Amino acid sequence: MKVSPEVAEALTDGAPVVALESALITHGLPRPLNLEVARELEAVVREEGATPATVAILDGVPRIGLSPAQLEALAQASDPAKVSLRDLPAVVAQKRTGGTTVAATMHLAHRAGVRVFATGGIGGVHRGHPEDVSADLFALASTPIVVVCAGAKAILDLGHTLETLETLGVPVVGYGTDAFPAFTSRSSGLPVPLRADTPAEVAAMARARDALGLQAAILVTVPIPEEAAIPWEEAQAEIEAAVAEAEAQGIGGRDLTPYLLSRLAERTQGRTLAANRALLVNNARTAARIALSLTR
Ligand code: PSU
Ligand code: MN
What we know:
The chain is α/β, with parallel strands linked by helices and 296 residues long. It has a single domain, classed as Indigoidine synthase domain (Indigoidine synthase fold, 3-Layer(aba) Sandwich). The protein is 48% helix and 17% strand. The protein is built from twelve helices and 13 strands. It has helices at residues 5-13, 23-28, 33-47, 68-76, 88-93, 102-112, 135-142, 158-167, 199-211, 232-249, 256-267, 271-295; strands at residues 2-3, 17-20, 51-58, 61-64, 81-83, 98-100, 116-118, 125-126, 129-133, 146-149, 172-175, 194-196, 218-221. Strands 1, 2, 3, 4, 5, 6, 7, 10, 11, 12 and 13 form an eleven-stranded mixed sheet that branches. Strand 3 and strand 4 (61-64) form a beta hairpin. Helix 3 packs parallel to helix 12 (271-295). It is globular and about 50 Å long. The mean pLDDT is 97. Pseudouridine-5'-monophosphate binds at residues 21, 23-24, 27-28, 84, 101-102, 119-121, 123, 134-136, 254, 257, 261, 276.
C-alpha cells in the first residue's frame, strides 16, 4: 500500500484528511464526466481546508492519495476492475488497475489511518434479490471510520438495507434530517434512527465509538441539495423500469449496480447524473467539515 506524500504529511501532522472512493470513477459515472467529478471532489475537500485522499489500485498497488496524472490514468484506464473486498487480493497479485468500492475503500483508508470517507450512495440489499447484499454493509459493521453518503443508492430495497444495518450494529445518522435520504431524492419516507445537525455532533459520536471500543463505522446520511433532487415518486417509477430491464436481461452480481445507474441516466436524459454529481460534491464538503471537527 502506498500513501501519497501529501496525504502522509497530513496524517503525520494530525491534519484533516478525507478519503474518496473510485468505483464511481471507473464504474459509476461515464467518461469524461468521471474525471471532471473526481477532480471536483478533491477541489471541494481542499476548499474546506482538508486533504483529499482518493483511493484506488494502480498496476496492483493500493494507493491512498493520487497525483493528478494518476487520477487521469484511472479515469481513462481500459477495462478497469471494480474492486470490492473479495477482489482486493487478486487485483493486487495480478497487478491490475481498478476502482475501489465503498467496502474496499473503507478498508484501505482505515489501514492508512484516515478517519473520514465520502462517497455517493452506499451499496445495500437489492430489490427482489434479498440474497444480493453489498459487501459495503459488512465493511460498515467492521471498519471504525466515519462514512458520509446520501443514503443507500435508490435502486436498492432501502427498508431491507436499513434493517440489515441495524442487525450489523451500524449507527445510521441523518445529517439535518429525520428521514433516510434516498440518494438522488431527499427522503425515502423511512425514518432514520439517529440525527446530527453539525460536524461537531458527528465527531463526538466517532470519539465515543472509539472510546467504547466498537468497530462499526458511523454512517452519516446527507440529503441531496434541494435544487438537484429528483422527487421520490418520480425516481421510483424510473427505478422500477430499470430493475425490470436488468431482470429481463439477466444482469446480476457485480454488474447490477453499474447497469442500473447507467440505465437510469439514459432513461432520465442525464438528470440522475447531474443529481449524482451534486450529492457527491455535497458529501465531500460535509466530510471535510467533519474531518476538521475531528482534528480539534
Ligand atoms: N455511489 C455512486 N456511484 C457508484 C457507487 C456508489 O454514486 O458507482 C459504487 C460504490 O463504490 C459502492 C458500489 O460501493 O457502487 C456498490 O456496488 P455493489 O452493489 O455491487 O456492492
Ligand atoms: Mn451485489
